[in-house]
Predict the 3D structure of the following.
Amino acid sequence: MARAQELLIYAMMSVSCCPAPEPDQSAHNRPGWRRVLWIALIANAAMFAVELGAGVAADSRALQADALDFLGDAANYAISLGVAGMALAWRARAALLKAASMLAFGVWVLGYALYGLVVGADPHAETMGLIGALALLVNVAVAALLFRFRTGDANMISVWLCTRNDAIGNLAVLAAALGVFGTGSAWPDLLVASIMAGLAIWGAAQVFTHARGELAETTRG
């Protein structure tokens, strides 16, 4: 109802030749976008707690890395909620911050996987498979909600990329569980943790490039 009234006022002011600001129809400022972000934030925060505990119990680098990814995504969703409706420059700066966090996560996971290679690890395949399947279900559900927002500004793109990479990472965790179960070795777990690090670093580069372009656009304007 409020939306209809806003459009009616805009139309009346246009007809009467009065200057009227165009209604904000941007996806980043819609209630639906905010609602999806809240759902994603709650789901990721809950999965961080579940997966971190399971990762420590199972001595799985891949599960622990995925848990920290859930925490990073929850923080990213909170940032996106904070800048929703703000000017493009602020949203682009928020995207740069998220790109930096994605890069930091990727570097940390890569280093942690190398540490596991040096000191050794004994991951439990059954726990990895069970928690990995649960994480996949959560991320696929969140990705389905975010799919229609995947082509917005850099801030929205960063949210989509984080969720998409998470779902890919969950599939990799399941593959690692099968590998650990079949070989009795920690190699599949360490390999998947390294792949997840690469996804985070690659996603950070994409978001950084897009956000820099948006900041340049605001400067030219």
Q: What stands out?
A: The two ends are 34 Å apart (CA to CA).
